[in-house]
């Protein structure tokens, strides 16, 4: 499997190669064309000086000092007789033989053998000036060689730089992969990825992964706690049921004793039903597609109060109500009833004396439901955890409290499914307040 570093390095190298390749072609074309133009321009400048010399009737041998005739030839004829040349007799004869075969047109440059030649006339003088083609080609080859060498050096330097940058950029990812492999080898969920402090997406990835690990660790701890609590909660009623059955089998019971046993069995089996029902409800909330419907909040509140009225009266708690009529909300009658009933039963359960207050009202945009009590309350740590599944406040006192800590988890999950805002305020030994907010119909 090819690494990301290899793929990035290959992609950047290919891109750089193509850029330098096309840049080289453009540069070679530009500089060679420019070199040819400069060579021809040089010939033209020399021709101007020659014409000026001929016009002023100066001595022709002065042209040696006035002209740069390197890699060039100059022939001047007067009345078809050669009166000036900068070439040897042998070279002059060879070039002239070639020139006689060419039909020149005025101001044109023509390729003659190894020269680019121009012919000009000034009065009785004919001027032939040319530059060696090899000279232009050599200059072009030098330019091409320089461009290729320079771009090769640039390519090597940039390749090294690209490798360094990619290696430095990918290193945090390699560190993350190594840490993940080390985590896979062990079974310790408390371990985390090392923070790389790169202030980029790799640091975000590390933080997100660590948050995921933390959530997994919490979930595993919750599952372990749930297994322990569920085992305890299920074991207790089953043990009582088994004990009562064994007692009934071991001796003859009178009718009133028999009814007492049946009553205990009924109470414990109802506890088992409640536990199992809550488990199934949580499973449905995670998977079931739930449709919203119009329902009246005030009606559901009064129904839940009626359900819990006997317990309220037994505990002697004062119930304070401030509920508007016809509070229509977009939710589910079934699940909203579960939410209100859980909040009310919790308030009753954890309040030994004092009162429970319920408010329900609305404004232009929202409908509000609030239930507060004067019960045992919670500290700040517990208020941030109470909606976690299987979490119970004050585990030291949980032995005499019913349930295994999933009632508020159900409340929270229902609120999430129906976009209901929920918050809790609580003070230890002062009481708690749960608030719901519904968005009104528009």
UniProtKB/TrEMBL annotation:
Keyword Nucleus on entry: no
Keyword field: ATP-binding, Cell membrane, Kinase, Membrane, Nucleotide-binding, Phosphoprotein, Transferase, Transmembrane, Transmembrane helix, Two-component regulatory system
SUPFAM superfamilies reported for this sequence: ATPase domain of HSP90 chaperone/DNA topoisomerase II/histidine kinase, HAMP domain-like, Homodimeric domain of signal transducing histidine kinase
The protein's Enzyme Commission number: 2.7.13.3
Histidine kinase domain: residues covered: 229-442
Topology class, membrane: Multi-pass membrane protein
UniProt cross-references to SMART domains, sorted A to Z: HAMP (SM00304), HATPase_c (SM00387), HisKA (SM00388)
Localization of this protein: Cell membrane
Transmembrane segments: 143-166
Catalytic activity field: ATP + protein L-histidine = ADP + protein N-phospho-L-histidine
Location of the HAMP domain: 167-221
Protein name stated in the entry: histidine kinase
